[in-house]
Design goal:
LolCE_TM; 15 helices; 6-stranded mixed beta barrel; 54% helix; Lipoprotein-releasing ABC transporter permease subunit; alpha+beta; 12 strands; transmembrane helix; two-stranded antiparallel sheet; MacB_PCD; 408 residues
Protein backbone atom coordinates (compact mmCIF):
# COMPACT_ATOMS: atom_id res chain seq x y z
CA UNK A 1 0.00 0.00 0.00
CA UNK A 2 2.83 2.35 0.84
CA UNK A 3 4.33 2.02 -2.65
CA UNK A 4 0.92 2.82 -4.15
CA UNK A 5 0.61 5.99 -2.07
CA UNK A 6 4.13 7.10 -2.98
CA UNK A 7 3.44 6.41 -6.65
CA UNK A 8 0.25 8.52 -6.65
CA UNK A 9 1.98 11.33 -4.69
CA UNK A 10 4.85 11.52 -7.18
CA UNK A 11 2.39 11.31 -10.08
CA UNK A 12 0.38 14.26 -8.74
CA UNK A 13 3.52 16.36 -8.33
CA UNK A 14 4.25 16.09 -12.06
CA UNK A 15 2.54 19.01 -13.70
CA UNK A 16 0.11 18.56 -16.51
CA UNK A 17 -0.85 21.31 -18.89
CA UNK A 18 -3.87 22.27 -16.78
CA UNK A 19 -1.85 22.24 -13.55
CA UNK A 20 0.99 24.61 -14.45
CA UNK A 21 -0.22 27.19 -11.92
CA UNK A 22 -0.33 24.62 -9.11
CA UNK A 23 3.16 23.48 -10.05
CA UNK A 24 4.38 27.07 -9.94
CA UNK A 25 3.02 27.46 -6.39
CA UNK A 26 4.73 24.19 -5.45
CA UNK A 27 8.04 25.50 -6.84
CA UNK A 28 7.61 28.76 -4.93
CA UNK A 29 6.95 26.76 -1.76
CA UNK A 30 10.17 24.78 -2.24
CA UNK A 31 12.15 27.97 -2.86
CA UNK A 32 10.54 29.62 0.18
CA UNK A 33 11.57 26.76 2.46
CA UNK A 34 15.07 26.75 0.93
CA UNK A 35 15.54 30.51 1.35
CA UNK A 36 14.31 30.36 4.95
CA UNK A 37 16.64 27.51 5.87
CA UNK A 38 19.58 29.17 4.08
CA UNK A 39 18.95 32.52 5.82
CA UNK A 40 18.72 30.83 9.22
CA UNK A 41 21.96 28.89 8.75
CA UNK A 42 23.94 31.91 7.52
CA UNK A 43 22.61 34.41 10.07
CA UNK A 44 22.95 32.08 13.06
CA UNK A 45 26.44 31.06 11.93
CA UNK A 46 27.47 34.72 11.73
CA UNK A 47 25.88 35.44 15.11
CA UNK A 48 27.59 32.43 16.72
CA UNK A 49 30.92 33.47 15.20
CA UNK A 50 30.49 37.00 16.51
CA UNK A 51 29.59 35.72 19.99
CA UNK A 52 32.61 33.42 20.12
CA UNK A 53 34.88 36.18 18.81
CA UNK A 54 33.59 38.51 21.51
CA UNK A 55 34.06 35.77 24.10
CA UNK A 56 37.64 35.17 22.99
CA UNK A 57 38.38 38.89 23.19
CA UNK A 58 36.99 39.11 26.73
CA UNK A 59 38.70 35.95 27.94
CA UNK A 60 41.92 37.03 26.25
CA UNK A 61 42.20 39.78 28.87
CA UNK A 62 40.49 38.07 31.80
CA UNK A 63 40.81 34.65 33.39
CA UNK A 64 38.51 31.66 32.93
CA UNK A 65 37.74 31.43 36.66
CA UNK A 66 38.07 34.04 39.40
CA UNK A 67 38.51 33.24 43.12
CA UNK A 68 37.90 35.86 45.83
CA UNK A 69 37.36 35.76 49.57
CA UNK A 70 34.14 37.08 51.06
CA UNK A 71 34.65 40.30 53.01
CA UNK A 72 38.43 40.08 53.04
CA UNK A 73 41.57 39.59 51.03
CA UNK A 74 43.39 36.30 50.43
CA UNK A 75 46.20 36.54 52.98
CA UNK A 76 47.92 33.29 51.96
CA UNK A 77 47.64 33.17 48.16
CA UNK A 78 50.32 30.48 47.74
CA UNK A 79 48.43 28.00 49.94
CA UNK A 80 45.11 28.76 48.23
CA UNK A 81 46.72 28.41 44.78
CA UNK A 82 48.19 25.05 45.80
CA UNK A 83 44.72 23.82 46.82
CA UNK A 84 43.24 25.06 43.55
CA UNK A 85 45.86 23.23 41.47
CA UNK A 86 44.74 19.92 42.96
CA UNK A 87 41.43 20.26 41.11
CA UNK A 88 41.25 18.39 37.82
CA UNK A 89 40.96 20.73 34.84
CA UNK A 90 43.00 23.60 36.32
CA UNK A 91 45.89 24.60 34.08
CA UNK A 92 47.50 27.57 35.88
CA UNK A 93 46.84 30.23 38.54
CA UNK A 94 48.05 33.75 39.23
CA UNK A 95 47.34 36.28 42.03
CA UNK A 96 46.15 39.81 41.38
CA UNK A 97 45.51 43.12 43.10
CA UNK A 98 42.78 45.41 41.82
CA UNK A 99 42.57 49.16 42.21
CA UNK A 100 41.73 52.46 40.58
CA UNK A 101 43.96 55.46 40.11
CA UNK A 102 44.54 58.62 38.14
CA UNK A 103 47.31 58.43 35.56
CA UNK A 104 48.90 61.56 34.15
CA UNK A 105 51.62 62.42 31.68
CA UNK A 106 53.30 65.73 30.98
CA UNK A 107 50.28 66.91 28.97
CA UNK A 108 47.22 64.73 29.71
CA UNK A 109 45.55 62.73 32.50
CA UNK A 110 42.80 60.11 32.69
CA UNK A 111 41.33 57.44 34.93
CA UNK A 112 42.99 54.03 35.17
CA UNK A 113 41.84 50.56 36.16
CA UNK A 114 44.97 49.31 37.89
CA UNK A 115 45.78 45.61 38.03
CA UNK A 116 48.75 44.33 39.97
CA UNK A 117 49.96 40.98 38.68
CA UNK A 118 52.79 38.51 38.98
CA UNK A 119 54.13 38.67 35.42
CA UNK A 120 55.74 35.22 35.59
CA UNK A 121 52.52 33.36 36.29
CA UNK A 122 50.18 35.85 34.58
CA UNK A 123 51.45 34.94 31.11
CA UNK A 124 50.21 31.37 31.73
CA UNK A 125 46.72 32.53 32.74
CA UNK A 126 45.99 35.76 30.87
CA UNK A 127 46.16 36.21 27.13
CA UNK A 128 47.37 39.79 27.44
CA UNK A 129 50.94 38.76 26.58
CA UNK A 130 49.72 37.76 23.10
CA UNK A 131 48.16 41.20 22.65
CA UNK A 132 51.39 43.12 23.17
CA UNK A 133 52.31 45.49 20.34
CA UNK A 134 55.40 46.89 22.08
CA UNK A 135 57.46 45.59 24.98
CA UNK A 136 56.72 42.45 26.99
CA UNK A 137 54.57 41.71 30.00
CA UNK A 138 57.55 40.02 31.68
CA UNK A 139 59.30 43.41 31.80
CA UNK A 140 57.12 44.31 34.80
CA UNK A 141 59.26 42.09 37.03
CA UNK A 142 62.59 43.46 35.83
CA UNK A 143 64.50 45.34 38.56
CA UNK A 144 64.56 49.03 37.57
CA UNK A 145 65.06 52.35 39.29
CA UNK A 146 61.37 53.18 38.94
CA UNK A 147 58.40 50.76 38.62
CA UNK A 148 57.16 49.74 35.19
CA UNK A 149 53.63 49.87 33.77
CA UNK A 150 52.01 48.17 30.76
CA UNK A 151 48.99 50.04 29.36
CA UNK A 152 46.50 49.88 26.52
CA UNK A 153 47.44 51.51 23.24
CA UNK A 154 44.42 53.83 23.29
CA UNK A 155 45.39 55.11 26.72
CA UNK A 156 48.94 55.71 25.46
CA UNK A 157 47.54 57.74 22.56
CA UNK A 158 45.38 59.76 24.92
CA UNK A 159 48.32 60.46 27.25
CA UNK A 160 50.68 60.97 24.28
CA UNK A 161 53.30 58.63 25.68
CA UNK A 162 55.34 55.72 24.33
CA UNK A 163 57.88 53.15 25.48
CA UNK A 164 60.33 54.59 28.00
CA UNK A 165 58.19 57.63 28.86
CA UNK A 166 57.31 58.41 32.46
CA UNK A 167 53.82 58.73 33.91
CA UNK A 168 52.49 59.37 37.40
CA UNK A 169 49.99 57.16 39.19
CA UNK A 170 47.88 58.94 41.82
CA UNK A 171 45.84 56.82 44.22
CA UNK A 172 43.32 58.22 46.76
CA UNK A 173 44.19 55.45 49.25
CA UNK A 174 46.71 57.51 51.19
CA UNK A 175 47.38 58.22 54.86
CA UNK A 176 45.08 60.39 56.91
CA UNK A 177 46.50 63.80 57.91
CA UNK A 178 45.12 67.01 59.49
CA UNK A 179 44.60 68.20 55.93
CA UNK A 180 42.59 65.09 55.04
CA UNK A 181 43.55 61.99 53.09
CA UNK A 182 46.82 62.45 51.25
CA UNK A 183 46.98 60.72 47.86
CA UNK A 184 49.71 58.23 47.07
CA UNK A 185 51.84 59.13 44.06
CA UNK A 186 54.20 56.82 42.19
CA UNK A 187 56.20 57.59 39.08
CA UNK A 188 56.29 54.71 36.58
CA UNK A 189 57.92 54.06 33.24
CA UNK A 190 55.92 52.74 30.27
CA UNK A 191 57.39 49.27 29.63
CA UNK A 192 54.81 47.90 27.21
CA UNK A 193 51.70 48.56 25.15
CA UNK A 194 48.91 46.11 24.38
CA UNK A 195 45.96 46.14 21.98
CA UNK A 196 43.01 43.83 22.59
CA UNK A 197 40.73 45.33 19.95
CA UNK A 198 38.21 46.37 22.62
CA UNK A 199 38.25 50.07 23.39
CA UNK A 200 36.98 49.56 26.95
CA UNK A 201 40.16 47.66 27.82
CA UNK A 202 42.66 49.49 25.64
CA UNK A 203 41.67 52.89 26.99
CA UNK A 204 41.26 52.20 30.73
CA UNK A 205 43.45 49.30 31.85
CA UNK A 206 47.04 49.24 33.08
CA UNK A 207 49.23 46.49 34.58
CA UNK A 208 51.92 46.85 37.24
CA UNK A 209 53.69 44.32 39.43
CA UNK A 210 52.26 43.28 42.80
CA UNK A 211 54.63 45.45 44.85
CA UNK A 212 53.73 48.61 42.95
CA UNK A 213 50.01 47.85 43.21
CA UNK A 214 50.35 47.16 46.93
CA UNK A 215 52.10 50.50 47.46
CA UNK A 216 49.26 52.35 45.71
CA UNK A 217 46.46 50.62 47.60
CA UNK A 218 45.72 50.12 51.27
CA UNK A 219 46.56 46.42 50.95
CA UNK A 220 49.47 45.58 53.23
CA UNK A 221 49.60 41.84 52.64
CA UNK A 222 47.93 39.21 50.52
CA UNK A 223 46.04 39.76 47.28
CA UNK A 224 42.50 40.60 46.23
CA UNK A 225 42.00 37.34 44.35
CA UNK A 226 43.39 34.52 42.24
CA UNK A 227 42.80 34.13 38.52
CA UNK A 228 42.65 30.65 37.02
CA UNK A 229 43.05 29.20 33.55
CA UNK A 230 41.33 25.89 32.79
CA UNK A 231 42.00 23.29 30.10
CA UNK A 232 38.44 23.25 28.70
CA UNK A 233 36.82 26.66 28.50
CA UNK A 234 33.37 25.16 27.85
CA UNK A 235 33.66 23.14 31.07
CA UNK A 236 34.79 26.12 33.17
CA UNK A 237 31.58 26.04 35.22
CA UNK A 238 32.21 22.43 36.27
CA UNK A 239 35.82 23.22 37.19
CA UNK A 240 34.63 26.26 39.16
CA UNK A 241 32.15 24.08 41.07
CA UNK A 242 34.94 21.62 41.93
CA UNK A 243 37.16 24.48 43.14
CA UNK A 244 34.29 25.74 45.30
CA UNK A 245 34.05 22.36 47.01
CA UNK A 246 37.78 22.33 47.72
CA UNK A 247 37.97 25.90 49.09
CA UNK A 248 34.64 25.94 50.91
CA UNK A 249 31.96 28.61 51.24
CA UNK A 250 34.42 31.15 52.62
CA UNK A 251 35.46 31.86 49.04
CA UNK A 252 33.59 33.09 45.98
CA UNK A 253 34.36 31.13 42.80
CA UNK A 254 32.96 32.43 39.50
CA UNK A 255 33.62 31.32 35.94
CA UNK A 256 33.78 33.56 32.87
CA UNK A 257 30.08 33.03 32.07
CA UNK A 258 29.04 34.27 35.51
CA UNK A 259 31.41 37.22 35.32
CA UNK A 260 29.80 38.30 32.03
CA UNK A 261 26.33 36.89 32.69
CA UNK A 262 24.31 39.89 31.49
CA UNK A 263 26.19 40.19 28.20
CA UNK A 264 25.96 36.54 27.19
CA UNK A 265 22.36 36.21 28.40
CA UNK A 266 21.43 39.15 26.16
CA UNK A 267 23.26 37.58 23.21
CA UNK A 268 21.53 34.25 23.80
CA UNK A 269 18.12 35.94 23.91
CA UNK A 270 18.94 37.89 20.74
CA UNK A 271 19.91 34.67 18.96
CA UNK A 272 16.58 33.10 19.92
CA UNK A 273 14.75 36.19 18.63
CA UNK A 274 16.59 36.01 15.30
CA UNK A 275 15.72 32.32 14.99
CA UNK A 276 12.02 32.97 15.59
CA UNK A 277 11.95 35.96 13.22
CA UNK A 278 13.63 34.10 10.34
CA UNK A 279 11.42 31.06 10.92
CA UNK A 280 8.57 33.25 9.65
CA UNK A 281 10.07 32.91 6.16
CA UNK A 282 9.52 29.15 6.39
CA UNK A 283 6.02 29.79 7.76
CA UNK A 284 5.17 31.86 4.65
CA UNK A 285 6.42 28.99 2.50
CA UNK A 286 4.22 26.64 4.54
CA UNK A 287 1.19 28.76 3.69
CA UNK A 288 2.08 28.33 0.02
CA UNK A 289 2.23 24.58 0.59
CA UNK A 290 -1.27 24.68 2.07
CA UNK A 291 -2.53 26.68 -0.92
CA UNK A 292 -0.90 24.33 -3.45
CA UNK A 293 -2.26 21.19 -1.76
CA UNK A 294 -5.77 22.59 -1.38
CA UNK A 295 -5.84 23.57 -5.05
CA UNK A 296 -4.55 20.10 -5.94
CA UNK A 297 -7.29 18.49 -3.82
CA UNK A 298 -9.88 20.55 -5.66
CA UNK A 299 -8.31 19.61 -9.02
CA UNK A 300 -8.12 15.91 -8.10
CA UNK A 301 -11.60 15.71 -6.58
CA UNK A 302 -12.80 13.21 -9.17
CA UNK A 303 -9.60 11.14 -8.98
CA UNK A 304 -9.89 10.88 -5.20
CA UNK A 305 -13.48 9.70 -5.52
CA UNK A 306 -12.45 7.04 -8.02
CA UNK A 307 -9.58 5.87 -5.78
CA UNK A 308 -11.98 5.55 -2.87
CA UNK A 309 -14.47 3.65 -5.04
CA UNK A 310 -11.67 1.23 -5.97
CA UNK A 311 -10.92 0.53 -2.31
CA UNK A 312 -8.48 3.21 -1.18
CA UNK A 313 -8.94 3.93 2.52
CA UNK A 314 -9.29 7.32 4.17
CA UNK A 315 -5.80 6.99 5.66
CA UNK A 316 -4.35 6.12 2.26
CA UNK A 317 -5.79 9.31 0.75
CA UNK A 318 -4.41 11.34 3.66
CA UNK A 319 -0.98 9.79 3.20
CA UNK A 320 -0.97 10.59 -0.54
CA UNK A 321 -1.23 14.34 0.08
CA UNK A 322 0.82 14.18 3.28
CA UNK A 323 3.67 12.64 1.29
CA UNK A 324 3.43 15.46 -1.25
CA UNK A 325 3.87 18.11 1.43
CA UNK A 326 6.65 16.08 3.04
CA UNK A 327 8.51 15.87 -0.29
CA UNK A 328 8.22 19.64 -0.75
CA UNK A 329 9.57 20.18 2.76
CA UNK A 330 12.42 17.68 2.32
CA UNK A 331 13.53 19.11 -1.02
CA UNK A 332 13.33 22.70 0.24
CA UNK A 333 15.18 21.88 3.45
CA UNK A 334 17.91 19.99 1.60
CA UNK A 335 18.43 22.79 -0.92
CA UNK A 336 18.43 25.37 1.89
CA UNK A 337 21.02 23.43 3.92
CA UNK A 338 23.21 22.94 0.84
CA UNK A 339 23.11 26.61 -0.15
CA UNK A 340 23.44 27.85 3.44
CA UNK A 341 26.47 25.72 4.25
CA UNK A 342 28.00 26.55 0.88
CA UNK A 343 27.56 30.29 1.44
CA UNK A 344 29.06 30.00 4.92
CA UNK A 345 32.06 28.16 3.48
CA UNK A 346 32.58 30.89 0.87
CA UNK A 347 32.32 33.71 3.42
CA UNK A 348 34.71 31.93 5.78
CA UNK A 349 37.28 31.13 3.10
CA UNK A 350 37.42 34.32 1.06
CA UNK A 351 36.69 36.94 3.78
CA UNK A 352 34.44 38.88 1.41
CA UNK A 353 32.93 41.16 4.05
CA UNK A 354 35.33 43.29 6.09
CA UNK A 355 34.34 45.00 9.33
CA UNK A 356 35.66 48.33 10.68
CA UNK A 357 38.23 47.52 13.36
CA UNK A 358 37.29 50.58 15.41
CA UNK A 359 33.72 49.30 15.85
CA UNK A 360 33.97 45.49 16.02
CA UNK A 361 36.50 43.29 17.87
CA UNK A 362 37.20 41.36 14.63
CA UNK A 363 38.27 42.52 11.16
CA UNK A 364 36.20 40.14 8.98
CA UNK A 365 32.77 38.59 9.12
CA UNK A 366 32.99 35.76 11.69
CA UNK A 367 31.47 32.43 10.66
CA UNK A 368 30.93 29.53 13.04
CA UNK A 369 28.70 26.69 11.83
CA UNK A 370 27.33 24.71 14.76
CA UNK A 371 25.97 21.23 13.82
CA UNK A 372 23.35 21.46 16.59
CA UNK A 373 22.00 24.73 15.17
CA UNK A 374 21.84 23.28 11.65
CA UNK A 375 19.99 20.23 12.98
CA UNK A 376 17.46 22.37 14.86
CA UNK A 377 16.91 24.53 11.76
CA UNK A 378 16.32 21.47 9.55
CA UNK A 379 13.95 19.85 12.05
CA UNK A 380 11.98 23.07 12.57
CA UNK A 381 11.60 23.52 8.78
CA UNK A 382 10.41 19.93 8.38
CA UNK A 383 8.03 20.26 11.32
CA UNK A 384 6.46 23.46 9.95
CA UNK A 385 5.99 21.97 6.48
CA UNK A 386 4.56 18.72 7.85
CA UNK A 387 2.06 20.59 10.01
CA UNK A 388 1.05 22.60 6.92
CA UNK A 389 0.07 19.38 5.09
CA UNK A 390 -2.34 18.15 7.78
CA UNK A 391 -5.40 20.20 6.85
CA UNK A 392 -5.25 19.62 3.05
CA UNK A 393 -4.66 15.90 3.64
CA UNK A 394 -7.59 15.70 6.04
CA UNK A 395 -9.75 17.66 3.59
CA UNK A 396 -8.90 15.23 0.78
CA UNK A 397 -9.76 12.23 2.95
CA UNK A 398 -13.24 13.65 3.70
CA UNK A 399 -14.33 13.63 0.04
CA UNK A 400 -17.30 11.29 -0.54
CA UNK A 401 -17.24 9.35 -3.81
CA UNK A 402 -21.01 9.60 -4.37
CA UNK A 403 -21.08 13.38 -4.00
CA UNK A 404 -17.91 13.93 -6.04
CA UNK A 405 -19.02 11.71 -8.97
CA UNK A 406 -22.59 12.90 -9.00
CA UNK A 407 -21.52 16.13 -10.72
CA UNK A 408 -19.50 14.33 -13.44
Amino acid sequence: MASFEWFVSLRYLRAKRKQKFISLITLISILGVAVGVMALIVVLSVFTGFTEGLRDQIIGVNAHVLVQRFGSTITKPDEVAASIKTVQGVQATTPYIYGQALISSATQSTGLVLRGIDAGSAVQVLGIDKKMVAGRLADLDKPTEIPSIVMGIDMARQLRVGLGDKVRLISPNGPLSPMGVLPKIRTCMVAGLFETGMFEYDSTMGYVNLETARSLTDLRQGVHGIEIRVHDIDAAHRTAAAIQQVLGHEYSVRDWMQLNQNLFAALKLEKLGIFIALDLIILVAALNIISALIMMVMEKNRDIAILKSMGATTRAIMRIFFYQGMLIGLVGTFLGMLSGLGLCALLKRYKIIELPSNVYPMSTMPIKVVPFDVTVIALSALLITLVATLYPSWKASRIRPAEALSYE
